[in-house]
Design brief:
- It is built from 3 helices and 3 strands; from the N terminus they run βαββαα.
- Helix 1 links the parallel strand 1 and strand 2.
């Protein structure tokens, strides 16, 4: 369940930091009863960015497959072996 706190609670920085590190979900900050910001630990943020980048790479790969822009795996491995003297 998402945690929602009012912006005035950001004064308690140590508590907010602890809350961010305990939760794997982002914490939603409200201002005047409306959504204003989202905070999370650096560790969770970096995991999220890695996941987003992976999804982008998968999307590119799927598009290349749909367009027929593929190579035979054996041919590709063979050319890599020749290129790097493996």
């Amino acid at each position: 369940m998402p945690q929602i706190i009012p912006i005035k609670d950001l004064k308690n920085t140590a508590e907010i930091s602890e809350l961010c590190h305990k939760s794997s979900d982002p914490i939603y900050i409200t201002k005047n009863g409306y959504g204003d910001m989202v905070i999370m630990s650096m560790e969770n943020y970096e995991k999220l960015i890695k996941k987003i980048n992976l999804y982008k790479e998968l999307e590119i790969s799927e598009k290349q497959i749909e367009e027929g822009n593929v190579k035979d795996a054996r041919t590709s491995l063979s050319s890599l072996r020749e290129k790097y003297d493996l």
